[in-house]
UniProtKB/TrEMBL annotation:
This is Methyltransferase 22, Kin17 lysine. The keyword Nucleotide-binding does not apply. One of its GO terms (molecular function) is protein methyltransferase activity. Gene3D superfamilies: Vaccinia Virus protein VP39. GO terms for biological process: hematopoietic stem cell differentiation; methylation. GO terms for cellular component: nucleus. Residues 51-64 have a biased composition (Basic and acidic residues). InterPro entries: Methyltransf_16, METTL22, SAM-dependent_MTases_sf. Residues 51-107 are annotated as: Disordered. Keywords: Methyltransferase, S-adenosyl-L-methionine, Transferase. PANTHER family: METHYLTRANSFERASE-LIKE PROTEIN 22, METHYLTRANSFERASE-RELATED.
């Protein structure tokens, strides 16, 4: 197979688009015949100050190309007349073919083209090689190995890694003491990257999403990175025991969700779930939601809008205004001044929101009714 064809009715995460081709390798087909790729995410030991973008990008180039033999894209190859001038040329049909010059200091400059290659298919020899690679990664503490698919339909977006997951992971890595020893629930975990990072500091992480296929991928990623986390109970596959449900209600201190607000109905579902959980927990709980504000041109508006984001903001306001006597929510945006431990573009459309849910003391309600009846 020379090239993978991406159909136009699919979406591809920028995370996979921007990673170097050499690390974007197809390893197998999953049970529904989708190509599965493996990406390695290097976790920097010392986070980079996000105000120093130049340094981060410099580091990114080094990590992508430790031997300095990175293939340049065709566009970059064109630019070698010493002056940075690009010579236009004619294509086979005689049309003028003007290559796009990478913008200087642009965060997208220097990216490799993504050229997935089938390296191996399942066979005993390959499985042995896989074990050796896993062993290698096990030894390199600072590397996350994540299997994912590329260019999925909207229903399958959880099988890719999204920038929101990396932003949330960065936040966790920059504040490990906040989550240390706690019980955490992740909603819409997708490939499980954020949960895996969370498990390096939290005591227990409930990693949730929908769909057997996706959960199997997520489980595989957890086992690929088990050197970073404590092994979870084998238990019954993808189901909750009574003890776990009780533990969730009694002990969850944090709920996290990365890039789960891109469809109004799903966003409504998310906020209903958050409300139900927080008002049933026995403790107050803090929620962190990361997202990317995506702009789309719509024919209805004849303009660029960010509908999914606007809906998310409306849901936030409604939650904050809620006064049902059981639970109150305080909503604030978290400044993205925390360090960057993972390599991705922290574009200005990325946001992190903190929702603090406080249970109102039931005793007050009781007292009020006592007063009323006396
Ligand atoms: C764009 S993916 C993000 C995956 C991962 N958190 C990341 O950032 O890489 C969105 C995920 O959220 C899940 N999701 C969205 N809304 C949901 C809902 N209401 N209930 C359950 N899962 C939901 C989807 O199944 C999907 O896996």
């Amino acid at each position: 197979m020379d090239q993978i064809a991406f159909h136009h009715d699919t979406v591809l995460s920028d995370v996979h688009m921007h990673l170097p081709g050499a690390r974007h390798l197809m390893t197998r087909l999953n049970s529904v015949g989708q190509p599965v790729f493996v990406s390695r995410f290097k976790v920097l030991v010392e986070g980079h100050d996000n105000s120093d973008r130049g340094k981060v990008l410099d580091q990114k180039e080094k990590l992508n190309d430790p031997q300095g033999d990175t293939k340049t894209s065709p566009c970059q190859d064109e630019e070698k007349d010493g002056e940075g001038n690009v010579e236009p040329f004619l294509d086979e049909d005689g049309d003028l073919d003007v290559p796009h010059r990478p913008r200087e200091n642009s965060a997208v400059g220097g990216r490799d083209l993504v050229c997935p290659v089938i390296l191996k298919q399942s066979s005993p020899v390959i499985e042995l090689e896989e074990c050796e690679e896993e062993e290698e990664d096990r030894c390199s503490e600072g590397v996350l190995r994540i299997e994912h698919t590329m260019a999925t339909t909207l229903e399958d977006v959880g099988k890719q890694v999204w920038r929101g997951a990396l932003l949330l992971a960065d936040f966790i890595l920059s504040k490990p003491e906040l989550f240390r020893g706690s019980t955490v629930l992740e909603l819409g975990a997708g490939t499980g990257l954020t949960s895996i990072i969370m498990a390096t500091t939290a005591t227990r992480v409930y990693c949730t999403d929908v769909g057997e296929d996706l959960l199997r991928l997520c489980k595989r990623n957890i086992s690929l990175n088990k050197h970073k986390t404590e092994p979870a109970d084998a238990g019954v596959e993808f189901s909750w025991t009574e003890e776990e449900v009780a533990d969730l209600y009694d002990n969850t201190r944090f709920i996290v969700a990365a890039d789960v607000c891109y469809d109004d109905d799903l966003t409504d579902g998310l906020f209903r779930t958050l409300y139900r959980l927080c008002s049933s927990f026995t403790h107050s709980c803090t929620i962190f939601i990361s997202l990317e504000k995506r702009m789309n041109f719509t024919l209805r508006h004849m303009d660029v809008t960010c509908q999914a984001y606007n809906h998310f903001r409306r849901c936030l306001s409604q939650l904050q205004d809620l006064s049902d006597g059981r639970c109150v929510f305080r909503v604030e945006q978290v400044p993205l001044s925390f360090s960057q431990f993972l390599l991705y573009e922290r574009i200005e459309q990325l946001e992190l929101w903190k929702l603090s849910a406080a249970l109102l003391p039931l005793v007050d309600v009781q007292l009020d009714s006592d007063l009323l009846s006396s």
